[in-house]
Amino acid sequence: MTTYHLRVNGRDHAVDTDPDTPLLYVLRNDLQMNGAKFGCGLGQCGACTVTMGGDAVMSCLVPVSVVGSRDVGTVEGLGTAGKPGMLQQAFIDEQAAQCGYCIAGMMMRAQSLLAKNPKPTDAEITKHMMPNLCRCGTHMRILRAVRRASNAMANQPAGAKA
Amino acid sequence: MTGGVASPGRRRLLAAGGSLTLAFAIGAMRPAWTQDETPLNKGKMPGSLEKEPWLDAWIRIDADNRVTVFTGKAELGQGIKTALLQVAAEELQLPPGRIQLVTADTARTPNEGYTAGSHSMQDSGTALRYAAAQVHGILAGMAAKRFDVVPATLTARDGAFQAADGRRVTYGELLAGRQLHVQADPAIKPRDPASHTVAGKTLARIDIPAKVTGGVAYVQDLRLPGMVHGRVVRPPAPGARLVEVDVAGVTRLPGVLKVVRDGRFLAVIADGEYRAVKAAAALARAARWEIQPTLPANADPAAVVRALPTQPTTILDRGTPGSAGRTLTASYTKPFQLHASIGPSCAVAQLVDKQYTVWTHSQGVYPLQGALAELLGADKAAIRCIHTEGSGCYGHNAADDVAADAALLARAFPGRPVRVQWMREDEHGWEPFGPAMLTRVSATLDGLGKIANWQYDVWSPPHNTRPGKAGNLLAATHLEQPFVPDTPKPSPQPEGSGDRNAIPLYAIPNARVVHQFQPGAPLRTSALRSLGAYCNVFSIESFMDELAHAAGVDPVAFRLRHLEDPRAADVVRAAARRFGWDNYRKTPRRGRGFAFARYKNLAAYCAIALEVEVARETGMVRVTRAVAAVDCGEVVNPDGVRNQIEGGIIQSSSWTLLERVRFDQQQVLTRDWAGYPILRFNQVPEKLEVELIDRPGQPFLGTGEASQGPTGAAIANAVFDACGLRLRDLPLDRARLRAGH
């Protein structure tokens, strides 16, 4: 076991774990966060997507030992059920979930796009979301939710953040 | 908590020590001490009230006016909780947010069997509608008596009745902690749909906020005190024999608490999840297996099913065959396909003081309870199964199997909750597959371009090997003393299983339909969303298109001339109109396709018109836009229905264009998303529209599986329209498009 210092959603955590433990398991079990999900452990489905230093990564493939000082972002960092963030609100407004197991990963992939490119084209949204899989067939609503979130952010007063 | 025997209402009643006896007679009310629980109106009860007629099994109102509604159905991501809540709220005249909904739990809710077959609104929605209407009526009567007014002068709002003079009493005050242990009255009249304020309007799904904010939403998210993690090492192939395994090295790995071996059931329990994953990988390496080639050499679906023993049943025999005219014949196939949940199946189980508690995303907590009792050699009463949502299952996936794994490990490691989640390779390799199927259809067109004769055969392995019996749980078949799976049986018509929707809804004077049921299959198979309907509707509706072309008639007009049910004709016309069928202008590489079915010939009507773009050089097919028209009786949550239909269209597009389980003689080869791809964002339509034909006051008709069959056929028909290729073997994948057959 080794102690790792992680910064998750802007908060510092110290975690004692084995160096090869993927970030996903650290988030879920050590930090008791539900957002990132185990889907395949192979980097093929995106259910475990989080942001790391702003980029979308599949946390099932990232050993905790390589995270370093990069800020990890999960869906918990976007808001709460009582006070949802813009992206979360957009997913609620579009009712963009069926079983919802893939949705937190979808949202973090979308977040990594909107943070860098707040006004993506529809084609850019589609291309960006490609790595993540949804089995319920909620794709149309997910794409609409990302578009809605982008529009909402664009209409925000300057200086406000997602 | 005990599980099982008496009805949940009865158990709660006994535990609470009393129910309400009213001074005046209402329906079948009896005093609490009455031991006779015989239903009074057997055969006449609406929905699941037939199985569970006691109102207090469905609705509980506490003295503090907390209202709890119980359903034996489970949330699978289809939005059933929200729709059931709307139904109950409407009749109870309560804001939905005031009601707590408790879903499938063997200790608390009615036994409504499985949450499957698009039955939930029909079974549980109907039961709750009548139960809630009756409860509201009884409460109104009590309030009227208390105020000495007639019930019609009362207004109900926010859980209370108010008299014209302003006097007010809450539901909870009326009952004062007692419960309505009263039998349902089938003569009760629910509220007039015209007066509805909650049912029939879109209500945002109650489960979505937790799902988008990282709340505890799934069984995968349960973290119980002292919980440990289990992982199972499956054999590499169905026919693999465990020759030897050296567990000593695995036992010494960090965090490993126990290695379990029982026959060829191998598992580890560790103090951390990833430690369990690593230990399971080490255990797999430490095991030596001998693999027998038990799978067919020719994996072609037609060859696989043709080789199986068959039990034919004629399910339709109308008129006399042999009409004169032009006869067409065609054969269609579907491969083995996966449920392929995004989240591998998961369960948590705990054994404390000889009582098991199992948190499971099974579609049937009561049947699972029975199967686990047999597996563990325990009384049903010693096992409580609590439904806890999982990743979408789309039928009988590995939910029950992983619950068995967790229960076996809980027995091996008593006291501590054991969480087991399958790995991706196991989910893809060991879930019960949707069976391969073969159909053959022959029809004769008369001189007027109408179908005079129809002969249809469908060959199919089982679509139902759900537990109920221990032998239907995967782990049970791997134990030293293995349980043997039940011999599967076909489900009878009209719902059917492999023959679901094998009888066309079209008016055909002479028709014969035969279900060639195959009780054995080389791979374990069970219910995948819509069962045989997907392949049967694909076959029938592809063939209707072929017949229309042979008759030189527009495919929509051809269907309409054979439809006598006006509701069927309505959805066909609505889909054609919304799509712009009559004014469609064909462009290069693109084509349009149409299909229709009424799911099970008794649930929702669904017609689909869509356009595809075909690139023959790459073999890529993409649905560019799709329109569905749906009649599901009275609509409770319009957006919920749309979400189900949209999802069904996209999921079926994925089945139709991409999906096939591959195997060699030893093992399943498609063990991950690379080997078994599903639809991605670049392959979804640009536009997807769902038109609902609402029928207020008509019975609820299940929608969750209505669009899968028509979508598959509409795609095949559109591919034909786009490029002239008639593809009859699923999936219509790139290789087939390029090869042209």
What is this structure's SSE topology?
The complex is a heterodimer of chains A (162) and B (741).
Chain A: E1 2-8, E2 11-17, H1 23-30, E3 49-52, E4 55-58, E5 71-73, H2 86-93, H3 103-116, H4 122-129, H5 139-154
Parallel strand pairs in A: 1-5
Antiparallel strand pairs in A: 1-2, 3-4, 3-5
Chain B: H1 8-16, E1 59-61, E2 67-70, H2 80-92, E3 99-102, H3 120-147, E4 155-157, E5 160-162, E6 168-170, H4 171-175, H5 208-213, E7 228-233, E8 240-245, H6 248-251, E9 256-262, E10 265-270, H7 273-286, E11 287-291, H8 301-306, E12 311-318, E13 326-334, E14 346-352, E15 355-360, H9 365-376, E16 383-387, H10 399-412, E17 418-421, H11 424-430, E18 437-445, E19 451-460, E20 510-517, H12 533-551, H13 555-560, H14 566-579, E21 590-598, E22 605-615, E23 620-631, H15 638-658, E24 687-692, H16 708-723, H17 734-739
Parallel strand pairs in B: 2-3, 7-17, 15-16, 19-20, 23-24
Antiparallel strand pairs in B: 1-2, 4-5, 5-6, 7-10, 8-11, 9-10, 12-20, 13-18, 14-15, 14-17, 18-19, 21-22, 22-23
Helix pairs in contact in B: 2-3, 9-10, 12-16, 15-16
